[in-house]
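Follow-up to my earlier ticket, as requested here are the two runs.
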Amino acid sequence: MCYPTQNEAESNTYYFDFDRLKSSDRYDNILFEITLAMKKLQSIGLSNDEKQRIFEAFIVTWSSYVGSEKLKLLNIGGINSDESAITEVSRWIAETLNIYETGKEKERMEKILDVIYSNFDNTELNIQYIAKNILFMNEDYFGRVFIRNMHLKFSAYLEQSRIEMAKRLLEYNPDMRIAMLTELIGYPADGQYFSKTFRKVCGMTPTEYRENLKKTDI
């Protein structure tokens, strides 16, 4: 790994929420935060080399943040896509926090979560797609495993996660175009279904949420 400079290492705190990550007690919380960081980088159009550099800086900073005795080198340069970076970095963080659970079903659940967050922007993401095309699982079994572990139906979990990520992305950049926001989180580009869902969950439209954020910053 080519280590970043001190300034580069410090700059990654703009994209990653270290406190939220450190307080995570579930693997999906980690996946959410790392996916969010990747979406921030994608939203500003960084090149693959630039994203790689920021993730390398994050690894150095995180290792120091949780204690050098937990340092485990991770070769970001060997990861060939944004999706695999999300999974590899999230699993590495989970190891540094010692929150992995053992057991066949827990391992299967982690794979399901990996698929969800590495395909977060896929508008076709649903139980049928994951079970049939990626994990080759029975759909009913998938649904039972998901509810048993997450205490929520898959569709409700995905909706909740996507709307929460939309809120966090708007907090990061209140001027982000709705079209870009929907693309990043897996809603149709016209934004109508997203706006309807956002209002159902948050009690206001994305535009109203954005304006509230701007008023708060004044």
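Run two:
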Amino acid sequence: MPPSYTDDQIVYAVRDGRITPAQLDRMAQGMIDLVNKTRAAMSVDNYRFDVDAHDEVAHQAAIESIVMLKNDDAILPLNAGPVANPSAMPQKIAVIGEFARTPRYQGGGSSHITPTKMTSFLDTLAERGIKADFAPGFTLDLEPADPALESEAVETAKNADVVLMFLGLPEAAESEGFDRDTLDMPAKQIALLEQVAAANQNVVVVLSNGSVVSVAPWAKNAKGILESWLLGQSGGPALADVIFGQVSPSGKLAQSIPLDINDDPSMTNWPGEEGHVDYGEGVFVGYRYYDTYGKAVDYPFGYGLSYATFEIADVTAAKTGANTATVTATVTNTSDVDAAETVQVYVVPGKADVARPKHELKGFTKVFLKAGESKTVTIDLDERAFAYWSEKYNDWHVEAGEYAIEVGVSSRDIADTVAVALDGDGKTQPLTEWSTYGEWEADPFGAKIVAAVAAAGEAGELPKLPDNAMMRMFLNSMPINSLPTLLGEGGKKIAQFMVDEYAKLSK
């Protein structure tokens, strides 16, 4: 069950059969188990946790979540003067956008929590002695623009060397309780960005949003773009660390950013009709769809820039079991900036009996490297990494054959591809007169029987099957009990021979 189901969606999912009673029981038991795990700590008299230590965990999590989408002319990191670089003249910075003062640090509705502390970006600047002029620019709602706020923001931008614009989705624009009907940010924010960019060409946009927003329509107005999502209680310090270069951004997109909402495969089924929505994409969700069908995207799955540069080399894949493998690669930081890179491993299936995506992410690891440093990383791929869910077997199934393994830094930035041959799990289904001739050929027992049919035909013991491309196409897709429609009484003899031989071999 997808973790994004809300309470009302669970009710509908149970009603529609997408969640079984057994699955619902497991969900309830999981919640009970979680409560029981916390019981010991909660029963300690006068128990107190370390607020500052917890805040530092939130700080580090936020740092690693920030994804740098764009950094033209190396506009980032900024120079805040003596705090970051004592030898450089500080830049005059303008901060525009209410999100900088009133961060949207969490989702809406039932996801609300009470933080132990809350540090905005403006709070962080004040704590660190970094000077910046601030203008809110807009209100955090879906109301029309305020001309006075816009005018103040533009004037503030005119007097700055660089502008940090904090844009995004207010809480009213997205929630677990309703579906968004657009990927666009509020029009008043885009209009303000255009006005600010006309007054100052050095603009960096910092986004606050729970799920992706369209970037292409306004990206020309920004030299830098940071996708910061909803960063939690320590988002302000995390953003300052990245923006002023204390750390290099290392986040990667967990969701493709499409050029248009209508490019998404769900749009053929959404928003549904008569109270019902079909999840018609099947396995072709997100990058699995975009990459399989060659659809252009704005930013691909797994994408994320850094202040450093990296190189991946010496990629190998070695079989470790019948259907398992291990992947190794050497990652080198080719810059003078300490930073982290995420090595991503995608599995490419060979010819399959079912529709499978072009490739799927099956492993990744983030490695921190000092300037010029190299490390070898290893990622193990278990049997599930190569499997698909088979309706026929009602189980996970690994087909025998060669699989390609791609190693890269996004789903569309692959450094190298290697191959590994797997044995398969050997699963078979009983063959019957309703099994197609092609299914008989693909089965270990069936293949022997098909060969026996051919030999008996050559010997004159059975009718000889026509051997041409057109007939082969018909044979492979038809049940063997349909052979009489092609071969008359001879087809009936062949089908009976095959069923009888299978009964002997499969005992």
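The only thing I checked on run two: The chain has 13 helices and 17 strands. Let me know what else you need.
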